[in-house]
Specification:
Residues 1-48 have a biased composition (Basic residues). The protein has one helix at residues 2-64. The chain is mainly α. The protein has one domain (14-64).
């Protein structure tokens, strides 16, 4: 009887650990998703900034009559 009880307890402990690990994994996945969203926003901002910078450069060049400016 004692051995059986011990085995049962061990199994219960293992199941608890498994559940804890599962919960941790779920939390990590959620965090990763949030990070990805932030990265996408940053990329968009960079692209817009780059475009506006290129645009202002071409405009100023065409203003001074240097280069092709805006085609």
């Amino acid at each position: 009887k004692k051995k059986k009880r011990k085995r049962k307890r061990k199994r219960k402990e293992k199941e608890k650990e498994k559940e804890k690990k599962k919960k941790k994994k779920k939390k990590k996945k959620k965090k990763k998703k949030k990070k990805k969203k932030k990265k996408k926003k940053k990329k968009k901002k960079k692209k817009e900034l780059h475009l506006s910078r290129a645009f202002s450069k071409t405009v100023s060049l065409s203003w001074r009559g240097e280069g092709e400016g805006l085609k």
